[in-house]
């Protein structure tokens, strides 16, 4: 079994679709990635701000498993890590299978709480034709499957850098499925 690890870290001070590679990120408890456009206690995603700017920010840190980029490359897509706006690219952990409220302990200090799934938006299709359909599918029962990563909040801040180990701490039973946030 492969150990869970952060492979790359990303941020952007603007609401750009893609983010920029960094040597490390500083995560701030209760806010998110220092200097990132989505950092804050309340929502920063523009469509959510338009509805209610006082909503709590459940999307402070966005994680995508690197295995998704392998899957997309095998289908002929050119999107690379960081291209879909994640803050952390991971390997060795099935992020989409985690229950809500799972804690991810990263490196020496950082603790994230998984809040839900990223809901892929039309910007993904604008980035590369056909990509939206590749990251939103349906299961055998017709349910929507969202593959564009998970969102989280920062419970304990600190520095995250490529190579940091990820330890998973599941919440108490019963486990709740991830829903879009």
TrEMBL record:
Residues 19-169 form the MOSC domain. InterPro entries: MoCF_Sase_C, MOSC_domain, Pyrv_Knase-like_insert_dom_sf. Gene3D superfamilies: PK beta-barrel domain-like. PANTHER family: METAL-SULFUR CLUSTER BIOSYNTHESIS PROTEINS YUAD-RELATED, MOSC DOMAIN-CONTAINING PROTEIN. This is MOSC domain-containing protein YiiM. It comes from Roseateles saccharophilus (Pseudomonas saccharophila).
């Amino acid at each position: 079994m492969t150990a869970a690890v952060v492979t790359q870290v990303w941020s952007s001070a603007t609401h750009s679709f893609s983010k920029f590679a960094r040597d490390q990120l500083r995560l701030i408890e209760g806010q998110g990635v220092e200097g990132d456009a989505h950092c804050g206690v309340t929502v920063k995603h523009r469509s959510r701000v338009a509805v209610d700017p006082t909503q709590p920010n459940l999307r402070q840190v966005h994680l995508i498993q690197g295995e998704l980029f392998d899957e997309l490359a095998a289908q002929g897509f050119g999107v690379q890590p960081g291209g879909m706006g994640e803050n952390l690219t991971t390997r060795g952990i099935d992020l989409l299978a985690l229950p809500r409220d799972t804690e991810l302990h990263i490196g020496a200090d950082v603790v994230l709480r998984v809040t839900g799934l990223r809901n892929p938006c039309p910007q993904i299709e604008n980035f590369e034709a056909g990509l939206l359909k590749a990251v939103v599918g349906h299961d055998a029962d017709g349910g929507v499957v969202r593959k564009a990563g998970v969102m989280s909040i920062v419970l304990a801040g600190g520095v995250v850098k490529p190579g940091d180990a990820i330890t998973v701490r599941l919440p108490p039973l019963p486990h709740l499925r991830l829903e879009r946030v």
